[in-house]
Automatic annotation (TrEMBL):
The keyword Nucleotide-binding does not apply. Keywords: Cell membrane, Membrane, Transmembrane, Transmembrane helix, Transport. The keyword Transport applies. Residues 1-28 are annotated as: Disordered. GO terms for cellular component: ATP-binding cassette (ABC) transporter complex. Gene3D superfamilies: MetI-like (1.10.3720.10). The chain crosses the membrane at residues 105-134, 140-166. It comes from Xenorhabdus japonica. This is Glycine betaine/proline transport system permease protein. The lineage of its organism: Bacteria, Pseudomonadati, Pseudomonadota, Gammaproteobacteria, Enterobacterales. GO terms for biological process: choline transport; glycine betaine transport. One of its GO terms (molecular function) is carnitine transmembrane transporter activity. Residues 1-16 have a biased composition (Polar residues). It comes from the Bacteria.
Amino acid sequence: MNNNSPQAVTDLTTGSDPWMDSATASPSSNYDWLNTSATDIPPEHFNIMSPFQHKLIPFDSWVTNIVNWVVVHFRPVFQVIRVPVDFILSGFEQFLMTLPPPITILFFALLAWQLAGAGVGAVSLISLIIIGAIGAWSEAMITMALVLTALLFCIIIGLPLGIWLARNERLAKIVRPLLDAMQTTPRFCLSHSYRHAVWYR
């Protein structure tokens, strides 16, 4: 029989070919998986014996959204604040990096000796020598510049605020709990300050 005959065409389209089984009878059957829905994932049930396996309160997402909103809407304010911070930080960093390390070591060792005693001065001297010996002098001076910059702004902001709180008892009742809460998170504040300082650079 001629393959171009109407009967051959009919056999190919209707699936009467003996080599076609029921799974391949229809050309569109190979694409049925496109029309089938994905298998539903069963929901995870709460386990009383392991209640904190998954987050119950997405607090981190809330904080991230708030921070992103503040950054987007108050970026000009942050850019203005950045100018004096970056200027003072760069000044401290350049000054500490240009000083010869022996002079810096002697200065901070003598300062620690005068403020906290001979023991602390000796520990400071040995610690600074070890920092330089392990090749971390530049990183230490950058950290020192960050600390000095933060100290300067704390003095600039803290002194007027302390005087204001001493004269306004009602304001002191509001601000003091906030300051007490901030004192309990020094590591959190330090890590975020370092990250923002690196970002500013």
